[in-house]
Write a structure and sequence with these properties.
By secondary structure, the chain is mainly alpha-helical. It has one domain (4-175). The protein contains six helices and three strands. β2 (35-38) and β3 form a beta hairpin. The longest helix is centred in the middle third of the chain and has 24 residues, at 97-120. The chain is globular, with a radius of gyration of 16 Å.
Length: 192
């Protein structure tokens, strides 16, 4: 596993936010090796997990969804969230805006959120962005996603600022001022 030393601090942090994390057989047959999600709870098998930061990334999807829906999230988070959007859309076509953001922007938000958590915990970004993550296997130096986040050019910064997790920063600083400290400092870790 990449960065096994980061697993315990990550699990402690997630549990502190109210994100359930359990070890054991529930991790089988998940979207990623060594991890699965059942009823909003992340199940982990450390022996099969590729990287400890994978928990942060998947939790980043969960925390972008209002808590009242967490128990309805499963193995394929994107499908779970899209199902919620469809079920919560009013007869006039008005969709729940928080669920819509999670469905449309959740991947970028999860990438930026997990990076901010890693920095907050004093962990290296490499625990999230290691060879093979996000289908990037060969690169020199830092993983490109970590580079984009550090440089302020990753769209997740904008989407987290628009959702009031953090302030506007990087190339997106001119797009608004929500009065919050700039990324990677976060003023909240979940949408509600």
């Amino acid at each position: 596993m990449y960065h096994p030393e980061a697993l315990d601090p990550i699990v402690t942090f997630l549990r502190g936010l109210g994100v359930g994390v359990e070890y054991g057989e529930g991790a089988r047959n998940g979207f990623l090796p060594g991890m699965n999600i059942h009823a909003g709870v992340i199940h982990v098998d450390p022996d099969a997990l590729i990287g400890s930061g994978d928990l942060l990334h998947e939790a980043g999807h969960i925390v972008a969804v209002p808590r009242r829906y967490w128990t309805r999230l499963g193995t394929d988070l994107q499908t779970s969230i899209e199902t919620l959007v469809a079920e919560e859309t009013e007869p006039d076509g008005t969709a729940n805006p928080l669920l819509t953001v999670a469905a449309q922007r959740g991947e970028f938000m999860a990438q930026a959120w997990s990076y901010a958590v890693a920095l907050h915990l004093g962990l290296p970004p490499a625990c999230i962005f290691f060879p093979g993550t996000h289908k990037l296997h060969e690169y020199e130096g830092q993983h490109p996603m970590a580079e984009w986040l550090a440089r302020g050019t990753h769209h997740g910064l904008l989407f987290l600022a628009q959702a009031n997790f953090t302030g506007y920063s990087g190339v997106f600083a001119f797009m608004g001022d929500n009065g919050l400290p700039p990324f990677p400092r976060m003023t909240r870790w979940s949408v509600d």
